[in-house]
Write a structure and sequence with these properties.
The chain has 231 residues and is α/β, with parallel strands linked by helices. It has one domain: Metallo-beta-lactamase, Chain A, CATH 3.60.15. It has helices spanning 37-46, 67-73, 150-159, 184-190, 192-195, 200-208, 218-226, and strands at residues 2-9, 14-21, 26-30, 50-55, 79-83, 93-95, 100-103, 106-112, 121-125, 128-132, 169-172, 182-183. The strands form 2 sheets. Strands 1-2-3-4-5-6 form a 6-stranded mixed β-sheet, covered by helices on one side. A 6-stranded mixed β-sheet has the order 7-8-9-10-11-12. A hairpin with a 4-residue loop joins β2 and β3 (26-30). It starts with a strand and ends in a 5-residue tail after the last helix.
Amino acid sequence: MINIRQLFDPASSTYSYLLWDEASRNAALIDSVKEQVDRDEQLIRELNLNLRYLLETHIHADHITGAGDLRRRFADKPLVAVHRASGSDCANQLLEDGDVLKLGEEEIRVLYTPGHTDTDVSYLMDGAVFTGDALLIRGSGRTDFQSGDAGKAWDSITGKLFTLADDTRVYPGHDYNGLTVSSIAEEKRSNPRLGNATSREDYMAIMNSMDLPKPQRIEEAVPGNLSCGLG
């Protein structure tokens, strides 16, 4: 059985996810936040978990990962993993589409879902997908900076994520309205950004017309994340 604990960083509205296999106690932490390292370490130790993976959904522009710090704090040295397109030289594993990570008896399957950036992956487990910024609850990640591509985002969402079973739970990388979880069926039916676009071209027009300020921490966050939070 897989357990899921959703954790929140209020400064960046980032969700981190602690996953573990009940039988083996082997665990993975998705999208850690540097300012929350003490909290995460304490929880992992309190739950008596064996931290095996520190997973990133992409190279973030709004917060710095805690992966490097957490790796140093655990004697078994969990693997830091990010998509190969990042070019990261600090990660222990550079992921590709279709990779499978073992978590005891459970499996985490890597789906390459670029568009928000060219480093985006989603992590698929039985009945749940962790989408980072590729697909949000009633939204999707912006595509106007840092290797973003609205056409690729459309392809990733409609061609990969929306082909999953309708009852697959969607756990996003952020939420700014207090929502915590959705489903593939809900997002197909109710996501306004996707529902208002009847074609790839419509979606690209919507995304390319967004006039948003750049993330406040982008200048420090991107290089910080390329160095696993240790730069």
